[in-house]
Amino acid sequence: MKARVKLLENVCFVGQSESGHSVVMDGAPEAGGKNLGVRPMEMLLMGLGGCSAFDVVMILRKSRQQVSDCVADLTATRADSDPRVFTKIHVHFTVSGKELDRKRVEQAVKLSAEKYCSASIMLGKTAEITHDFEVVED
């Protein structure tokens, strides 16, 4: 996997993925940014959410669950001093669908956290990561 991050101006960068997608990252105004894009650490947190939600949906669909939506809401705490790594992350999944089996949703969340989500496993080396979920009937 490859990526490229290029300075645009001040502390604003464009990140380009190997798959051809781009995203703007910018710093906070107090750090010289203009708030034109997502902060790099926010990007990391969203990456964890995307990775884990992807796993949950794929696992549930493989077990023939009728998933219509999956939202991962993430809350993180960072260290007070440099490096300001994540120290705690909580992921709350809201999984919607028709006649979803609550035990299968619980298992999908657990499998993602413990086996499949590379981002979660990697960030879990420095942060305490917790998960919970709710099931919403369509």
Explain what the structure shows:
The chain is an alpha+beta fold and 138 residues long. The protein has three helices and six strands. Strands 1-2-3 form a three-stranded antiparallel beta sheet, with no helix packed on it. A three-stranded mixed beta sheet has the order 4-5-6, with helices on one face. Helix 1 crosses helix 2. The N and C termini lie far apart (38 Å). The model has no long low-confidence stretch (mean pLDDT 97).
Which CATH first-tier class of the largest domain would you pick? Alpha Beta
Mean pLDDT: 97
Class of secondary structure makeup? alpha+beta
Kindly identify the CATH topology of the largest domain: GMP Synthetase, Chain A, domain 3
Fraction of residues in β-strands: 35-45%
Helix content: 25-40%
Quaternary structure state of the chains depicted: single chain
Largest sheet: 3 strands, antiparallel
Helix count, DSSP H or I runs of 4 or more residues? 3
Order of helices and strands: EEEHEEHHE
**First-last Cα distance:** 38 Å
Using only C-alpha atoms, the radius of gyration works out to 17 Å
| Global outline | elongated
Q: Low-confidence stretches at least 5 residues in length (pLDDT < 50)?
A: none
Sheet with most strands: strand arrangement: 1-2-3
The CATH architecture designation of the largest domain is: 2-Layer Sandwich
The total number of structural domains is: 2
Give the number of DSSP strands: 6
